[in-house]
Design a protein that fits this description.
heterodimer; A: alpha/beta; four-stranded antiparallel β-sheet; globular; disordered C terminus; B: alpha/beta; Rossmann fold; 2 domains; 16% strand; elongated
Chain lengths: 345, 431
């Protein structure tokens, strides 16, 4: 990977709690090239948001990186201080669209003032240029240009979210990290924003790390994907290979749980059970208790994220039965004749 | 069987709010602005129907629901339950209605009392409505919502339930009185996708088992086929299209529904869906006035006959006219930004620059140019008249909803045959 922009390698993140240290991310590895859109998918609690927060140095106070590296343009950044992150990366290189607009805007400052502050610190643009850029972005996100001088409370929740998207994109960062950026928005607005992101990708080779539970958006808009389940990356690869040739049971069941407007009648997959809470070292497949194909081996050690050996070198799965699981699913559904000892969910 | 009235008939229902006013407004005797959250909604719910109302945030769907359960006074129109209009409900009617119309809210994290056990939550409605056999009913409903065995859940409090389990309890609470009607407001949107499907499937099955009917309110067209046979699409307070779910998804007629359906992501990297052509966001539902409410964003807005103008140019003119008529143009700001605020020619040019980017030619360009000069010299009314005369669209008349033989309703001027004067000849035609 010569022009990798962001490389995450064997990343492990834990949160200190009264009942012990909870593992939120366990040995996660992936990389994002310039101009690549990368989707990180999973259910709530899978560790996808934690991964993103670690990259931008935004872990909660009780969270810490317990192993592995995060490299941006080749430089290790996992131990950067806030000051270093602010000076070198935030806004101009990497910008962040948070999941919720609440508390993300300074309530005492007009949106344009916040833009000026960001622009003055991170670029050489004149105030007039900054305002113009912000106006353009307001137009993209469907806000009236004249409202850049409004205070956050003058916007509804959906409009605040769009104002934040405008702030995150107006300096044309190299990498946009977006945590469920459009979940609170309606589909047409979501499409308008992705239309703009597509254009940034074409014009400026912008990269995107998109964190979402919505695999439809990822399959449609991203080049690559990693699907996480309870701290582990279950499967990773180009969206084509994960879509066409899935190997990890969670990956294909998750995919089949999504509706497709082209087949309004199709039965949706249901994944029984809940992800486990993981205290300390993760020493088993975190999906084993929900997996119809789990065998003894899956509970004895954590399966490594190994290449599956097809044409796509990035395509990897962490499943001991990755070579047969999908075939079994296609033939027998979730009733696996080889593993009848499935536990009570 | 003679004429049994429909279970629930919503007839031209309106719910308007007044924008808050301050002392100054009162002193100046300003008319408060009207927020037209629900503005003439009609549909009928028969026994065992499951009807969806789909729309984006701000379209009025939640106000519709709150009005249906009596939490808002009705501004206009009526809701008729088994033949009795809500406007003439007495106390007993209300009690009967409230036990027979139950709601499932979006957020299972806030809709259950955190201090109550599952058993208490489920028993409360039975106690209020003085229904006997409570223990047995509670157990049965827990079985029905697939919280098995019931003993495992009875003593739990919401904090010991997962999101999916909470929503199952909320569904159980809505069903425990064996209501006629369930109103469900985005019942699965806060759940993880792995549980969404199972909750939807269960809800649909239970509606049938309990012989109930449902109004399902959601922003999500992609899952609606799993729960409702009929979809109403709502935009800014009005229903713009209504049809059988699968037909509507496969062949939407109203340009708004078309935009909505085509913006749904398709989970397939090989499928090349084109991104939406639309820009902007729905406007606020304040003082909306006459006309189709989608016309300011509509990619198929209809220019007057006989003028030659491209879609994007026409939409620009329309947006400008509208802002001009509603006094929303920041004319003072534009004037002040000029080197010489008294220079009317420069003023007109600055307005042109700010609002018109598409190519206008011939008579269209001349009309706009003259109108801008009139605005610059202070004769706004003349400009309004001039622009209206040339550019007024049929879309500025509120389109009636028309219906074809199959019960497909659509409210869009595209489907009227404007050459014929009789409404009988109106038919939905596809291109």
């Amino acid at each position: 990977m010569s022009d990798a922009l962001l490389e995450v390698e064997d990343l492990t993140i834990r949160y200190e709690t009264d009942s012990g240290d909870i593992t939120a991310v366990s040995d996660a590895s992936f990389s994002i090239d310039e101009g690549e859109f990368f989707g990180l998918a999973g259910e709530s609690g899978s560790g996808k948001s934690t991964t993103a927060k670690a990259i931008i140095g935004g872990l909660d106070d009780n969270g810490y990186v317990d192993g592995g590296t995060i490299r941006y343009r080749g430089e290790e950044i996992q131990d950067f201080s806030d000051a270093q992150l602010n000076e070198k990366l935030r806004w101009k290189e990497i910008s962040w669209i948070p999941q919720s607009s609440m508390n993300s805007l300074d309530p005492l400052q007009r949106v344009s003032e916040q833009a000026l502050e960001i622009g003055q610190v991170h670029t050489d643009l004149s105030n007039e240029e900054i305002r113009e850029k912000l106006k353009e972005m307001f137009d993209v996100v469907g806000l009236q240009e004249s409202r850049i001088d409004d205070y956050p409370h003058q916007f509804s929740g959906g409009m605040q979210q769009r104002a934040i998207i405008a702030l995150a994109l107006f300096l044309e960062p190299s990498l946009v990290i977006a945590d469920e950026p459009t979940t609170a928005l309606d589909v047409i607005m979501q499409d308008q924003i992705f239309k703009y992101l597509d254009r940034m990708k074409d014009d400026a080779s912008t990269s995107l790390l998109l964190i979402t539970h919505d695999i439809s958006v990822i399959f449609e808009s991203c080049d690559s994907v990693a699907i996480m389940h309870a701290s582990q990356i279950a499967e990773r690869g180009s969206t084509e290979s994960v879509h066409d040739n899935p190997r990890h049971p969670y990956a294909f069941m998750f995919k089949e749980a999504f509706p497709d407007i082209r087949e309004p009648d199709r039965d949706l997959e249901v994944i029984e059970g809940y992800p486990p809470e993981l205290i300390g070292e993760v020493s088993a497949c975190s999906f084993a208790d929900r997996c119809p194909w789990a065998v003894e081996e899956c509970r004895e050690s954590a399966p490594p994220l190994d290449p599956v050996g097809d044409d796509d070198a990035t395509h990897a799965a962490s499943c001991f039965r990755s070579d047969e699981a999908y075939e079994l699913y296609e033939e027998h559904g979730t009733a696996d004749p080889a593993a009848p000892e499935r536990g009570d969910d | 069987m003679t004429t049994e009235p429909p279970l629930l008939e919503i007839d031209g229902l309106e719910k308007h709010f007044e924008e808050s006013t301050n002392v100054l407004d009162v002193l100046m005797r300003r008319e408060p602005s009207k927020i037209q959250a629900v503005d003439g909604v009609s549909f009928t719910l028969e026994r065992n129907d499951s009807i969806a109302v789909i729309g984006e945030s701000g379209c009025g769907k939640t106000t519709l629901l709150l009005t249906l359960i009596g939490l808002h006074d009705i501004t206009g129109g009526d809701v008729v339950y088994k033949g009795t209009p809500m406007s003439s409900f007495d106390k007993a009617d209300w009690k009967d209605y409230r036990s027979n119309v139950q709601v499932i809210f979006q957020d299972p994290f806030n809709s259950l009392d955190p201090k109550m056990t599952v058993e208490e939550s489920l028993k409360e409605p039975l106690e209020i409505h003085d229904v006997g056999n409570r223990d047995e009913r509670v157990r049965q409903v827990l079985e029905d919502v697939e919280l098995r065995p019931p003993e495992k859940y009875l003593r739990r409090k919401p904090m010991n339930l997962s999101g999916g389990e909470k929503q199952r309890v909320a569904i159980g609470r809505a069903l425990v009185l064996e209501p006629d009607i369930i109103l469900a407001d985005e019942p699965v949107s806060m759940l993880d996708v792995s549980t969404q499907a199972s909750v939807l499937r269960m809800l649909k099955g239970l509606i049938d088992d309990y012989d109930a009917s449902m109004i399902y309110i959601s922003h999500d067209l992609s899952t609606v086929s799993y729960i409702s046979e009929v979809v109403n699409v709502m935009y800014l307070g009005r229903i713009v299209e209504s049809a059988g779910t699968e037909r509507l998804l496969a062949d939407p007629k109203h340009p708004y529904t078309e935009a909505l359906v085509s913006a749904i992501p398709v989970p397939d990297p090989h499928y090349d869906r084109s991104r939406t052509e639309m820009s902007g966001a729905p406007r606020d539902p304040i003082d909306l006035g006459e006309g189709c409410r989608f016309r300011d964003r509509c990619p198929k807005v209809i220019p007057p006959e006989g003028i030659d103008i491209g879609q994007s140019a026409y939409r620009e003119v329309m947006a400008f006219r509208e802002a001009l008529e509603r006094e929303e143009l920041p004319l003072d700001r534009i004037r002040e930004s000029l080197d010489d605020p008294g220079d009317t020619e420069a003023f007109a040019a600055a307005i042109d620059d700010e609002y018109f980017s598409a190519e206008l030619s011939g008579e269209n360009a001349a009309t706009v140019e003259t109108a801008l000069d009139e605005i610059a010299t202070g004769d706004r009314d003349a400009a309004i008249d001039r622009l209206r005369e040339r550019f007024e669209s049929v879309c500025e008349i509120t389109p009636d909803s028309i219906e074809d033989e199959s019960g497909w309703h659509v409210a869009c001027h595209q489907y009227y045959d404007h050459d014929r004067q009789s409404t009988e000849d109106h038919a939905i035609t596809t291109d």
